[in-house]
């Protein structure tokens, strides 16, 4: 004889299973950034960003800022809805504990958007060439970061002879030549405040300013807290951060 579970108990069990699945989807990653108009770069207030996987929703604040907590590692899809803008989607790849910054740029709907769409000619888009596996973090930040980025090809085009020469024409960079040499300082940094140098993923404020330009493969420059990515936010972000990637890379550990 088959005994049926009471309807109330069945519903309770379903809710428990659903809540367990939702908790299983949570992780330790974070995603944050701003929602802006692609053309004007103005903040878009009240944008709804929906986690497609679990339905969680955040709304951008008066500065266009949004933040998701407790995201699981892996590929995560989001849907973006703002009045006067077409619905957009994007996907990010997260790791456990990662704090990823991702700005969202939306194109506003033109007047008469309900009319039939006019087909446009195909445009070939050529991605920037990869620098190699070791520079994956550089390329990830360059693809959606707020900083300024130089590769060896960019440096060679300027004919720079020093690190200072290489970054001289970047936005927000000043120089203090009051001592025996010239020091790089960010225009928005407090007085006498030197930037943090990260050389091959390690803080090195002694070697960083003097790295020979011939050894540099790539440079990331962040002028202040609003630009500094999450992985460097705990450092002296107010003074700016200069990330240097060299040809040799970090020294290998013994036994590796």
Overview features:
single chain, 256 residues, alpha+beta, Immunoglobulin-like, Ferric Hydroxamate Uptake Protein, Chain A, domain 1, five-stranded mixed β-sheet, four-stranded mixed β-sheet, 16% helix, elongated
Give the number of helices. Answer: 4
Query: What's the average pLDDT?
Result: 81
Largest sheet: 5 strands, mixed
Radius of gyration (Å): 24 Å
Low-confidence stretches: 9-24
CATH topology of the largest domain: Ferric Hydroxamate Uptake Protein, Chain A, domain 1
Overall description:
The protein has 256 residues and is of the alpha+beta class. It folds into two domains: 26-106, Immunoglobulin-like (Sandwich), CATH 2.60.40.1120; 133-246, Ferric Hydroxamate Uptake Protein, Chain A, domain 1 (Beta Complex). 16% of the residues lie in helices and 30% in strands. It has helices at residues 7-25, 136-144, 152-158, 163-167; strands at residues 26-37, 48-51, 57-59, 65-71, 74-81, 88-94, 99-101, 104-106, 148-151, 173-176, 183-186, 196-199, 202-203, 216-222, 241-246. The strands form four sheets. The protein has a five-stranded mixed beta sheet. Strands 1, 4, 7 and 8 form a four-stranded mixed beta sheet that branches. Strands 3-2-5-6 form a four-stranded antiparallel beta sheet, with no helix packed on it. It is elongated, with a radius of gyration of 24 Å.
């Amino acid at each position: 004889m088959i005994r049926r579970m009471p309807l109330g108990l069945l519903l309770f069990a379903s809710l428990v299973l659903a809540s367990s699945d939702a908790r299983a989807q949570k992780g330790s990653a974070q995603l944050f950034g701003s929602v802006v108009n692609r053309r004007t770069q103005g903040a878009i207030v009240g944008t709804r960003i929906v986690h497609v996987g679990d339905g969680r929703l955040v709304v951008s604040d008066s500065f266009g800022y949004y933040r998701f907590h407790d995201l699981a590692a892996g590929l995560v899809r989001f849907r973006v809805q703002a009045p006067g803008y077409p619905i957009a989607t994007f996907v990010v790849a997260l790791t456990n504990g990662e704090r990823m910054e991702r700005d969202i740029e939306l194109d506003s709907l033109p007047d008469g958007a309900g009319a039939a769409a006019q087909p446009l000619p195909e445009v070939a888009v050529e991605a920037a060439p990869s620098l190699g596996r070791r520079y994956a973090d550089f390329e990830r930040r360059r693809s959606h970061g707020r900083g300024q980025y130089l590769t060896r090809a960019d440096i060679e085009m300027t004919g720079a002879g020093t690190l200072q020469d290489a970054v001289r024409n970047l936005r927000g960079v000043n120089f203090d030549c009051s001592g025996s040499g010239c020091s790089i300082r960010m225009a928005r940094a407090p007085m006498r405040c030197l930037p943090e140098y990260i050389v091959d993923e390690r803080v090195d404020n002694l070697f960083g300013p003097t790295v020979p330009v011939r050894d540099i493969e790539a440079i990331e420059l962040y002028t202040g807290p609003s630009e500094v990515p999450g992985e460097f936010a705990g450092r002296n972000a107010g003074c700016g951060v200069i990330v240097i990637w060299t040809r040799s890379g970090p020294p290998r550990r013994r036994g590796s």
